[in-house]
Specification:
The chain starts with a helix and ends in a 7-residue tail after the last helix. β7, α6 and β8 form a beta-alpha-beta unit. The strands form 2 sheets. A 6-stranded mixed beta sheet has the order 3-2-1-6-5-4. The protein contains 7 helices and 8 strands. The protein is globular, with a radius of gyration of 22 Å. By secondary structure, it is α/β, with parallel strands linked by helices. The longest helix has 15 residues. Bound molecules: flavin-adenine dinucleotide and 2-acetamido-2-deoxy-beta-D-glucopyranose (NAG) (2 copies).
C-alpha cells in the first residue's frame, strides 16, 4: 500500500508545484530531510510508521497540537462509520484486518482497534485516542503546531531526481525535502454556489443540538453519510425532513464503495 500511494502523491505534486524560476536567492537556512510528510492523520502516521521501521530520515509536520485532529471535530455527530468488527470466525490476520476498518498497519497486535473500544460504530474520540497512542508507541517524529504555508520545488544537481522541495511554515522556518508526501486530508468544506446558497448552513458548522430544530421543516442538500448523520440527529424533533441530491441514494452494502451511505 505505501509504495503505490507514495508514487501517486509524488507524481501529483510534481505536476502541480511550480518550479522556482531562478536560483537567485541562495538557500542556506533550512533543515534538510530525506522525507517530509505533511499531516499527522491516519495517512501521514501510517507512512511515518513504515519510514521509521526502515530507519529513514523523515519528519511529519502537523498544524494541530495532536495526531488525528480531523477526528476531534469530525464526524460532527461523533459516531464513526468505519466498522470495528471484532469477530469474523477466522484466524487469518489479513482476513480479519480487512474487516477492521480503523486499525493502522503495524507489527504490534496491541494496536488493533478492538482494544480501544467494543462499539461496532465507535465514538470518534476513540480514534483520536488510538492515533495518539499509535504515535507514542512507535515514537513517530512529528513536529506539532507547524503549518506548512508554502511549497516550492527547485532544481538541484545533487537531488536524487533533480529537484528538492522547499517548505515554509507559519513561523517562517524552512525545510528542504528530497521526497515530499502530502497527507493533508479532505477537511476543506465543499461549499455549493447557487442563488440563495448564502442562506445554507454547512455541515462543518451547523448546530448538532436537536433542540435548535424543534418543530422545523428542514431541507438537507445531499444524501450521503454527512446528510444522513445530520438527519438522524434531528428526526425526532422536526416536522419533516426533505433530502435532495443529484443522484439516487447509494448504499454502501449494494455499491461496495465505502463512501456511500452506511
Ligand atoms: C464528514 C466526514 C466524516 C468521516 N468519517 C469517517 C469515519 O467515520 N471513519 C473513517 O475511517 N473515515 C472517515 N472519514 C474519512 C476521513 O477523513 C479519513 O478516513 C481520514 O481522516 C483520512 O486521513 P488522512 O490522514 O488522509 O487525513 P486527515 O485525517 O484529514 O489528516 C490530515 C492532517 O493534515 C493536517 N494538515 C492539513 N494541512 C496542513 C498543513 N498545511 N500543514 C500542516 N498540517 C496540515 C491536518 O491538521 C490533519 O491533521 C470522514 C470524512 C469526512 C469528511
Ligand atoms: C491541544 O490544544 C487544546 C486547546 O487549544 C488543549 O485543550 C489540549 O489539551 C491540547 N492537547 C495537547 C495534546 O497538547
Ligand atoms: C494507550 O497508551 C497508554 C500509554 O502508552 C497505555 O497505558 C494505554 O493502555 C493505551 N491504551 C490502550 C487502550 O491500549
Amino acid at each position: 500500500m505505501p509504495k503505490s500511494w507514495m508514487g501517486c502523491t509524488f507524481t501529483m505534486l510534481v505536476a502541480s508545484v511550480a518550479f522556482a524560476s531562478s536560483h537567485a536567492t541562495a538557500r542556506t537556512d533550512y533543515l534538510h530531510l530525506d522525507y517530509c510528510i505533511i499531516g499527522a492523520g491516519p495517512g501521514g502516521l501510517q507512512m511515518a510508521y513504515f519510514l521509521q521501521q526502515s530507519q529513514r530520515h523523515y519528519l511529519v509536520f502537523e498544524r494541530s497540537n495532536l495526531s488525528g485532529s480531523f477526528f476531534v471535530r469530525y464526524p460532527r455527530h461523533r459516531k464513526l462509520i468505519s466498522i470495528n468488527k471484532q469477530y469474523t470466525g477466522k484466524q487469518n490476520k489479513e482476513f480479519n484486518l480487512r474487516h477492521d476498518w480503523n486499525s493502522l498497519l503495524s507489527h504490534d497486535d496491541n494496536l488493533l482497534y478492538k482494544h480501544y473500544t467494543k462499539d461496532f460504530f465507535p465514538h470518534a474520540d476513540t480514534m483520536v485516542h488510538y492515533l495518539n497512542n499509535f504515535t507514542n508507541r512507535f515514537d513517530l517524529k512529528i513536529r506539532y503546531n507547524t503549518e506548512i504555508t508554502w511549497i516550492e520545488a527547485e532544481k538541484h544537481p545533487k537531488a536524487w531526481n533533480g529537484h528538492y522541495f522547499y517548505l515554509t511554515d507559519q513561523n517562517d522556518y524552512h525545510y528542504r525535502c528530497s521526497v515530499l508526501l502530502v497527507a493533508t486530508g479532505m477537511w476543506v468544506p465543499n461549499t455549493p454556489d447557487f442563488p440563495g446558497s448564502e442562506h445554507v448552513e454547512g455541515y462543518e458548522s451547523v448546530s448538532v443540538d436537536p433542540a435548535d430544530f424543534v418543530g422545523q421543516t428542514v431541507l438537507i442538500l445531499g444524501r450521503g453519510n454527512a446528510a444522513f448523520e445530520t438527519a438522524d440527529n434531528i428526526v425526532g424533533v422536526t416536522n419533516f425532513i426533505h433530502m435532495l441530491s443529484r443522484s439516487r441514494l447509494r448504499l454502501a452494502w449494494a455499491t461496495h464503495y465505502v463512501g456511500d451511505v452506511r
